[in-house]
Write the structure tokens for this entry.
Amino acid sequence: MYLYTIKRKNKEGDYTDYYQLCESYRDEEGKPKRRVLANLGKKDNPNTTKKLQRVVLQIASAAGMKDLVNLNTEITTSWSKSIGPKLVIRKLWEDLKLDFVFSEKHHEHIFMMVLNRLCDPASKMKCMRWKETVYEPLWDEIKLHELYKALDYLIDNKEKLEYKMFNNIRDVFNQNTDLMLFDTTSVSYWGEGENAPELLKFGYSKEKRNDLKQLIVALLMSEGGIPVGHETYPGNQVDVTSFPKIIAKVKDKFNLKRVVWVCDRGMISQSNIELLDSINHEYIIGIKMRMLNAAQKEILLATKYKDFTKIHDNLYVKQIIVDIEVNEEDKKEEESIKGDKKIEVESDNGNGNEQSRKKKEKKTKIISRRYVVCYNPQQAKIDAINREHFKEIITRKVLEKTDKSWIVKNGYRKYIKLKEDIIESIDYERLEKEKIYDGKWVLLTNTKLEYTEIAKYYKSLWQIENAFKELKSSLDVKPMYHWTEKRIRGHIFICFLALVLELGLKNKLIKVSYDEAMEDLKKLQVSLLKVKGIDKLKRTKLVGTAPSVFEQLKLAIPSMNMV
């Protein structure tokens, strides 16, 4: 027996659908036929619907299906809320033992704000509305002012909390904490910032927003790319001045026996290098190659391809030891390559002999600097192609425009020869000299690590750079909705915790992208159904990558009927 729909034409020529209750049978010749048992009426007629419901209930009763209910009158849905991201992030939160790091009074408030940063970043006021879309009975009694108190708690206990977190992360992820990756970024602030005058300052903006006040965020990560600590500094503080403050805190704060700093030259000055040497901290520093003088380029960059040692198809390395003659009074340096070649870094302004005599009288010392030159032949080919493409662009620009304004704006000045502010020609010779940089980067180190290993360590710095992209984009540090310095610092701490969990989840997922996982987890919902006056919780099915995420985190999948 089955329900069949037929179309009948009325007087006006329109077609109307009718329901029939039919059965199938075969005639004497064995051909399939349809027999009409009852005409049930028009498809959209309320009386037809009621007739169908009575038939269904009678059939269900005869079949012993006592639990069958009337969908229109006996089942109602009160709400549907998200549960997937909360279950997964809660599991990771517990794996990192963060439930023991924070006080019981503020623990759930902090977890709620962190999950909000990962799922739907918003102000704390909007966070209160967002929590109503997530199934978590523990949040029912949370009030807005309690979120602000939790932020204050984080900053009042920052050093102690980060130390506890550091030990947990080291144990859970089996991280090498000797190697510390360090980088900074600027975070713009939309507003006057009059309530945090010591923190929010105008300064060099890495976001190219020099019209806005900002603050500086420094991030420390382990070799495996897991954040272990953060600091905030005034927006006008440059990297070279913030770095010594980090140095002073880290080794004692985390009770480390050995520290290897991996960072870019942009945040390291000569005085910082001397500081690291004086306190026996090891470092691997990326050198800005275009800041090298001609003699340094000749030694470090003019190395022949055959002189490198192959590590991988895309990585060749060479070690070069350079002696540096340091004048202890004026801190000027003269470099000489170990062996036959010497570099003279002296200037003669007419009193060369006199200056030379006085210089010899000054106290000097020799320091050996260890450089590791890295070469990627695949990247070298790409750089060469890009340079030729750039040459075509600048040639076309010169033909189109003769004023120098576009040159200054786009940073092309060094490749152009000007005469009385008019473009005279392109400096093709200088463009040709750029090939010395193709596929290369230079590292300075004082470690005793094998030079073949140093390049691999430096590549870890890319993880921290990617982490900052997460910090400023997916974790949405800005715009900030706080006015006071303490609350701004608390907000950054929440973002830092969210970053720890995001990168921690990425670390655990195999062949599943974080973005896909979160998207599929958000589709896992739980609904409150009222069935014959009784409340029942029922979840949706896991879709896409969600089952794999639960499996990889060894997280039990909740029952379809949760209550």
User: Anything to note?
Assistant: The chain is about 40% helix and 25% strand. Residues 69-96+513-563 form one domain. Residues 330-350 have pLDDT under 50 and may be disordered. The CA atoms of residues 57 and 68 lie 8 Å apart.
